[in-house]
Amino acid sequence: MLVVGLTGGIASGKSTVSKIFSTNHSIPIIDADLLAREVIEPGTSGFSLIVDHFGADRILDSSGLLDRAALGEIIFNDPDERKWLNSVIHPRVRREMVKRTVSYWLGGEWCVIVDVPLLVEAGMWRWVGDVVVVYVNEKLQLSRLISRPVPNTPPLTETQAKARISSQMSLSEKLNYSTYVLDNSGTMKDLEVQIDKLVSKWKVSQGFNYFGWWYKLCWLVPPVGLTAGLMVLFSRWLKYNVGSKKGRRRGRGEVDRGWKPEEIELRERNGRPGGRRRTGGSITDE
């Protein structure tokens, strides 16, 4: 089974991409944001630790539930508190993600997408077969974040929005870890076309042009699947620990690390009408 890590930044459109994968291609999604909420719900050990650390008067609402806006205001402006909160949430989320990934594999799925905002920061990119980064430039990211409606919460000011963006690794840095880049600076149709082509590439890699023989073999014969997974992880280790020092030829469809992020966006939007787009780092390379 192909395990794909999907990441991006706040207001980059990652949730939209995730929904397209799920709705248009029936690929199961493991959403780390949803899991992060589940592991700190009232009654969990995570909830108790967080309330004890920050204080009920600071982060609980009148119903005794977490006031996420208040908690967000604390952690987005205090790196130490953010680090502590991540140390509580991340291990619990990782355990739940492993359980669900195994469950999908046992169910015979050919691919699962792990949707993780902090895929790179948490080091989880090392444990997936492909890394997909949803990219927009910083100006568009800021504009979308300010204009994004949040129920029962006043809109963010520009200062608040910038603080939230700067609290995360920049999208341009995440490109260094990506296998494929989805440029979300254009229309929904542009995005869907990129995703369709990417899924087609994945299916070919899993033997779908021959009745899905590879993923079925890995499912029916677990030692083959385990060996294949270990080989993928080993090749990823070589790529970032050996290949990065010696330099290597860029694989088909991979990101050209020599381009600036703005060039990725411009090349994606300026593709030849009716022909192949000229984005070395996008999934539209044929």
Automatic annotation (TrEMBL):
Listed Basic and acidic residues bias regions: 262-271
Record region (Disordered): 262-286
GO molecular function, one term: dephospho-CoA kinase activity
Alphabetical UniProt keywords: ATP-binding, Kinase, Nucleotide-binding, Transferase
Keyword Transferase: yes
Matching CDD domains: DPCK
Example GO BP: coenzyme A biosynthetic process
Listed SUPFAM superfamilies: P-loop containing nucleoside triphosphate hydrolases (SSF52540)
Pfam families named in the record: CoaE (PF01121)
Protein name: Dephospho-CoA kinase
PANTHER family for this protein: BIFUNCTIONAL COENZYME A SYNTHASE-RELATED, DEPHOSPHO-COA KINASE-RELATED
